[in-house]
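Take a look at my tokenised protein here and describe the backbone shape.
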Amino acid sequence: MIQKFILPALLVLASCGDSHSFKKAEDAQDAGREFIRASLDGNYEKASFYLYADSTNQLLFNKWKKDYASLSADEQKGYKEAEILPINIQTLNDSVTSYTYANSYKKDTTTIRVVKVNGEWLVDLKEILNRK
């Protein structure tokens, strides 16, 4: 009798697996777009998947999350509904791309770098420090 429940229970558990798995970026533009969209949406679990996670980027990312969390519900809604407005996407070499964008909610221009690390495209936020 119990065996009738074990197999279905195992199938349900297996299907639950990693529900938060994200697709690796195919190229620099893909990584930049996924990171930016997740950030605008306040989905920092997804954004962190596309982040080059060195200590400086972690500090910048934590500030980025804190700033978003301090926004009003209306401001967060504005970002969630915003479109990404690419301004300049420039390949600097085979492993570094500069991605400058704004969004349709706030027209502030931001530049990030997307770097290829161990065959994976990831966002490097340190470019923000160079632009200030």
In short: Confidence is low (pLDDT under 50) at residues 1-19.
